[in-house]
Design a protein that fits this description.
Elements lengths: L5 E6 L6 H17 L3 E5 L4 H16 L18 E10 L5 E10 L9 H9 L2 E7 H5 L12 H5 L1 H11 L8 E7 L2 H5 L3 H22 L5 E6 L6 E7 L8 E6 L11 H39 L2 H9 L5 H36 L6 E4 L1
Parallel strand pairs: 1-4, 1-5, 5-6, 6-7
Antiparallel strand pairs: 2-3, 3-4, 7-10, 8-9
């Protein structure tokens, strides 16, 4: 009854802040889960990397220096990185059910046709498609209203093509959660609806095309996060050695590191993971019920006289074996039901905290 590793791919161009988002959001969800008896913690290999990135963000967000342009200068991923977390759910019998969740962060350049990115996407259960809100919103083009640098920074066509290649020969269920990062300025100005409008205008046509190829992709949820919270957008600038312009940020006086809403994308992801795990347990329970029915018939069909005869001589009989098999099946069935109830409890609690107003849903 071991569980498979549940894979989540962090999708986005280079430097968009995939690892920074993971570092900010897991801590917020960890606190939420602990309220109803579940934990979500990085393993020993992942802990140092995530803690270092979170400390880096905290230092930048709490700095007294008003110019925190270096917040976008944290080096992007140069090779594939895997971050493993353990989701533990307490059960009624004082045991815990553990689900291993692996986040995969790949270099943005891999999405330009590298088969490794296509394979990782095809094999993942969920993906978080990360979009830089500043590129989407700032310096809007007169014709489209979309930010001037959106195409070159967020590169939506390249990411879409990677999804298309990944899903070309696979028809398994896949959940996409879109996440707008660096949204601090627009939240302060109450421009969340405008962000979603521009996101929909830019991405809905691509998602509709992807839906035609992948019928199991029913809906895509989108949300925004404030990864640092204490900064606002300042300007785009490009250094001589840089290919693309970078957003720079200004520290808000009197504010310290205060990420907000970072649990939203992870909440959707964990809800999906729990739903899939619960469905798998339901299938196992149904199979177990069938096997129990077969075991009962075997017990009924056994020849009681000869089984009693051999038992006198201390020899395990066919009947005894079948009764033992039946008892083992009953025990496994009860354990599966217990696990299912534990997963269901955590899922219900997460869904209670998953407010519809926090998300924009693409109806495909």
């Amino acid at each position: 009854m071991s569980n498979p590793i549940l894979k989540i791919t962090m999708v986005g161009p280079s430097g968009v802040g995939k690892t920074s988002l993971l570092a900010a959001m897991y801590k917020e969800l960890e606190r939420e889960l602990s309220e109803f008896g579940a934990t979500f913690v990085p393993d020993a290999r992942t802990q140092p990397a995530i803690t270092a990135r979170r400390n880096e963000l905290q230092l930048l967000g709490s700095s007294t220096n008003l110019d925190v342009s270096q917040i976008v200068s944290i080096e992007g991923t140069q090779d594939k990185r895997e971050y493993d977390f353990i989701l533990s759910v307490k059960l009624k019998n004082s045991r815990t059910e553990k689900l291993e969740v692996r986040f995969i962060d790949m270099p943005g350049g891999w999405y330009k046709g590298d088969a490794r990115a296509d394979t990782e996407l095809a094999e993942s259960n969920v993906s978080i498609w990360i979009v830089d809100a500043t590129a989407l919103m700032e310096q809007p083009e007169e014709e489209t209203g979309i930010g001037r640098y959106h195409t070159i920074i967020n590169d939506p066509e390249t990411i879409y093509n990677a999804y298309q290649r990944a899903f070309e020969e696979t028809h398994t269920d896949h959940c996409i959660v879109m996440c707008l990062v660096r949204a601090e300025s627009y939240v302060r100005e109450n421009r969340q609806y405008e962000m979603y409008q521009k996101l929909s205008k830019s991405y809905a046509p691509l998602l509709h095309q992807l839906k035609r190829q992948t019928p199991s992709l029913e809906t895509v949820e989108a949300c925004y996060v404030e990864t640092v919270g204490s900064v606002v957008f300042q300007m785009f600038k490009r250094e001589k050695n840089e290919q693309f312009p970078r957003a720079t940020f200004r520290k808000v006086q009197g504010r310290t590191y205060s990420p907000s809403g970072c649990a939203k994308p992870l909440r959707s992801v964990i809800a999906y993971v729990l739903q899939q795990s619960l469905l798998a347990k339901i299938v196992e329970v149904n199979e177990m019920v069938e096997n129990i029915g077969i075991a009962i018939e075997h017990v009924k069909d056994a020849d009681t006289f000869w089984n009693n005869f051999w038992e006198i001589w201390g020899i395990e009989t066919n009947l005894a074996k079948r009764i033992r098999d039946y008892n083992e099946l009953e025990s496994k069935h009860d354990e599966l039901v217990n696990i299912g109830e534990g997963l269901q409890h955590v899922l219900e609690k997460i869904m209670e905290n998953k407010k519809p107003s926090d998300y924009f849903t693409f109806n495909l």
